[in-house]
Amino acid sequence: MTRPDLSKATAPVPADGRPVLEVDDLHVEFRTRSGVVHAVNGVSYSLTQGETLAILGESGSGKSVSAQAIMGILDSPPAVITGGGIWFEGTDLLTQPEEEQRKVRGPGISMIFQDALSSLNPVYSVGFQIGEMFRAHRGMSKKDARKRAIELMDRVRIPAAARRVDDFPHQFSGGMRQRVMIAMAIALDPRILIADEPTTALDVTVQAQVMDLLKDLQAETGMGLILITHDLGVVNEVADNVAVMYAGEIVERGTVDDVFTRPAHPYTDGLMSSVPQVEAKGGRLQPIVGQPPNLARIPSGCPFHPRCSRRRLGAEAAPGRECSTDVPPLRLVVPGREAACHYSEEVLGVRAQ
Amino acid sequence: MSEPSEHGATAASSLPAAVPGDHVHSSLTKLTSGGAATGSRGEMGEALLEVRGLQKHFPLTQGIVFKRTVGHVRAVDGVDLTLRRGETVGLVGESGCGKSTVSKLIVALERPTAGSIFFKGKDVARMGGRALKEYRREVQIIFQDPYASLNPRMTVGDIVAEGWSVHSDVAPKKGRLKRTQELLDRVGLNPDYVNRYPHQFSGGQRQRIGIARALALQPEVIVCDEPVSALDVSVQAQVVNLLEDLQDELGLSYLFIAHDLSVVRHISDRVAVMYLGSIVEEGTAEEVYSAPSHPYTQALLSSVPLHEPHLRGQKDRILLQGDVPSPADPPSGCRFRTRCWKAQDVCATDPPALVDRGQGHPSACHFAEARTVVPVDAE
Amino acid sequence: MTDQQQADLLHDEVEAGTTTGLASPSVDVTKERQNSLWSDAWGHLKRNPLFWIGAVLGLVFLLMAIVPQVFARGADPRACNLSNSQQKPSAEHWFGFDQQGCDYLANVVYGARNSLIIGLLAVLVILVLGLLVGAVTGFYGGLLDSLLSRLTDIFYAVPFILGAIVVLRSGFLGRGVAAVAVALAIFGWMTAMRLVRSQVIAVKSSDYVAAARAMGASNGRILIRHILPNAVAPVLVYTTITIGVLIAAEATLTYLGVGLQRPAISWGLQISAGQSLLRTSPHLVLFPSIILTLTVMAFIMMGDALRDALDPRQRA
């Protein structure tokens, strides 16, 4: 039962290193009765084959919205994509007609969600729902689809798949339901799998099983994995690269090793010191003051400045780097690391000592 | 731990909540240590709550008008716990292990099927009338969901002050508003917001209101049922720090129930691990986390993702097979044997007692053996 | 830094909760008014045109019931002259005359009183019965709940109108306004009771009720302070809509000849009397029907608007 940690199994090296998916300066707004909510404000990231990119953020940081935009499952209205592009294998999905988008997305990109129970239809057996993917997209017969469904359930390590294929979602435990959803998501061999808080609702022992499964499937198929989560530990154990989101923007980006060892943005730094670790009792926690901002009223300048312990206001600030007025762009701080803070070098320096 | 600052030394802003004014501090201390209702405060370390052989079985019924009992869910099945004055006992376990039922039993929201809860030597199950009312004043609860735990139709002030209309001897009618405001101030809320309603506050702020409500009755014990798991990561730490500060200041004892092993390690003095209705391992936080001896604890700890990149891959991964068995039909003998790699014949027949078998702290496993699964952060 | 910048900054800080010690509510900090859920609902209601149409209509009919003289343009509904029998509407007499030669506008206007009294009285009985039985069954549960719920099922099994007809025909309540109201309420309270019961059960298991119980609060206190205020919203919506339904039901009963009887003035009686003359004098059916429909709609619209305003799913 004990085995070495495989969570960092080497991913297949991308054939040409070209990104499979590129999100370019994406803007998404929600136009609600009580005002415009700026959920995503100029977010860019890319994903190569076999890469695991974690998007780390708290609730209301816009981390799920960008993924929903990629999948084309934003409720519109109220959501409106106001700018940017989503490039998948060389085509901008946003400029394509809806029918075309569906053809590209269906087999190319798939997604799993936090709440597996509400994502599965309670009145159909899980085998039927997995098989549906093959019937709808590959035109398979009912019998073949059922056979493929059993294979897939085996592949996601559901015990006694042949016996359980006709069971209904409520007859499975939370972890098993999440596996059913993963089986549906990988049915058509997607190039990219987006996992939105896939283990948040699960117990920690089950979470470990599901994360292991995702990593193994990725190693087998070489698909790119976008992992949306608020859990620093999961990011550390699973992802290659991480993008930290705050108030609808990416505030820091780099490899997990770099970002977690030496954060360059005060928000990332604050997050690290406010979360207790299982590996040490640690001293007093150092929370970030205040609350995450309301996306309908994002603070001026750097959106993090009202909560930031390093902000420089008025005369203290260097010219053009006043935290409450000048918006810090996401810029290269050291090779391989970008951060959206006027004073990232300082943050890096302090942490390095 | 006694450093009252809510944030790092470099933080530019000052927080009235984090650095309470002297008047608030002293009046609150007075609030909790004096007064006729409070009685005398005992020594630190004195056992306040002793739970012995606690059981709670929920009947499974069929039928509409005349219900037939067809079985029992053994939600809690033999739990022993001791909570001493001024300490925090962490109770960890996965969903469905019965930890929330334990909290409901301790605050007397449910009656135990068997076993007893002794508070200062008196059995809570035998209490009635005045004694029970007094017990309910001394033992308060903080809930997980800050949205469901506050009455949406009551103002914050009314919510915090409600306990005083039940226990009118705690605070005289005159000056209740002032006390409410002091309490709000103490938990880090603006005292001017007494007339606001819960839905106007964020999750973290609501949890502070819940804490203020619990504090209003000057309790000795607070049962914290997953108090931070519904909060955003950056807000969790604020609430954890607040709980720690209040404990230092008022000498409170916490039973801290959570599934987040990191938070429990951080806040607890002692830790009890629960599986399928009973406690499988118990000890100081250090003992349980550095030298877990029950296979379940080891598996649990090895599943928690680490935060430090340089420790990644240094731990043994113990992947458990299968799911937790149903509490309506638990396995014979040791509850964990169906998923345990050490299981032998004896495990199916003899339930292991929660005792020290030489590993340094009590563990309910016939083959208990300390083992390090969480690498020690050298930094 | 300019004053404006400073003001902006302060605003942002307050938003993020730094200067006020994490304390400012997440909603608009500049607004002084304290919002309860009820006042929020009112704010919502105020912006709903459906509510205003319903409210204005409802108010007009209420005034009509209280001071019919004002609306009858000086005519007395009982001052009739057979020579005017079945005259068509004119500039002088907007609704024309009925078969007896009575001013029809005055008749229709005076009919509002009985309709509204019956509607409101019946709804009051329904509300009281529903709250009482619903709260008791939902809160205490057990055998009492089982028995009362089965009793409700028995009432459910009898069609509303049929039940009322049987009661009124039996005669032991009489045939007055109160009798019709009670007959309607007896067979109309079950939905209200079920609504209250299910709400009470839902609220009973909420954490804030557990918190109050853990504090040692008594059952009465929990019921009155915590459960009922949170359980009444759906039943208020239901009863508002029901007023309209009851008014229509009263007209139906009266039309069928088991409700109010002459010389009482009521829309049901007018429609009933008018139907035999439908071919020669359609206005005799048309006017009371329009007014009846408008009244029923007014309450249904208000109920709908109230539901929108009280529905928590609409709130972010």
Automatic annotation (TrEMBL), chain A:
Main localisation: membrane
Keyword Lipoprotein: no
Keywords of this entry: ATP-binding, Cell membrane, Membrane, Nucleotide-binding, Transport
GO molecular function, one term: ATP binding
Keyword ATP-binding: yes
An individual GO BP term: peptide transport
Domain ABC transporter: 21-272
One Pfam family cited in the UniProt record for this chain: oligo_HPY
Source taxon at top rank: Bacteria
GO cellular component: plasma membrane
Alphabetical list of InterPro entries matching this protein: AAA+_ATPase (IPR003593), ABC_Ni/Peptide_Import (IPR050388), ABC_transporter-like_ATP-bd (IPR003439), ABC_transporter-like_CS (IPR017871), Oligopep_ABC_C (IPR013563), P-loop_NTPase (IPR027417)
Membrane topology according to the record: Peripheral membrane protein
Localization (cell): Cell membrane
Family: Belongs to the ABC transporter superfamily.
Protein's UniProt name: Oligopeptide transport system ATP-binding protein
UniProtKB/TrEMBL annotation, chain B:
UniProtKB keywords: ATP-binding, Nucleotide-binding, Transport
Domain ABC transporter: 60-301
Superkingdom: Bacteria
Disordered: region residues: 1-40
GO molecular function: ATP binding; ATP hydrolysis activity
Gene3D superfamilies per UniProt: P-loop containing nucleotide triphosphate hydrolases (3.40.50.300)
Record's keyword annotation contains Transport: yes
InterPro entries per UniProt: AAA+_ATPase, ABC_transp_ATP-bind, ABC_transporter-like_ATP-bd, ABC_transporter-like_CS, Oligopep_ABC_C, P-loop_NTPase
BP term (GO), one: peptide transport
Family: Belongs to the ABC transporter superfamily.
Protein name stated in the entry: Oligopeptide transport system ATP-binding protein
Gene source species: Geodermatophilus aquaeductus
UniProtKB/TrEMBL annotation, chain C:
Principal cellular location given in the protein's record: membrane
Keyword Cell membrane in record: yes
Pfam short name (any one): BPD_transp_1
GO biological process: transmembrane transport
UniProt keyword Isomerase present: no
Compartments (UniProt record): Cell membrane
InterPro entries: BP-dependent_transpt_permease (IPR050366), MetI-like (IPR000515), MetI-like_sf (IPR035906), OppC_N (IPR025966)
Keywords: Cell membrane, Membrane, Transmembrane, Transmembrane helix, Transport
Gene Ontology cellular component annotations, sorted alphabetically: plasma membrane
Residues annotated as domain ABC transmembrane type-1: 112-303
SUPFAM superfamilies with a match to the protein in the record: MetI-like
Membrane-spanning parts: 50-71, 116-142, 154-172, 178-196, 227-249, 285-306
PANTHER family the record matches: ABC TRANSPORTER PERMEASE PROTEIN, OLIGOPEPTIDE TRANSPORT SYSTEM PERMEASE PROTEIN APPC
Stated family: Belongs to the binding-protein-dependent transport system permease family.
Protein's UniProt name: Peptide/nickel transport system permease protein/oligopeptide transport system permease protein
Origin species: Geodermatophilus aquaeductus
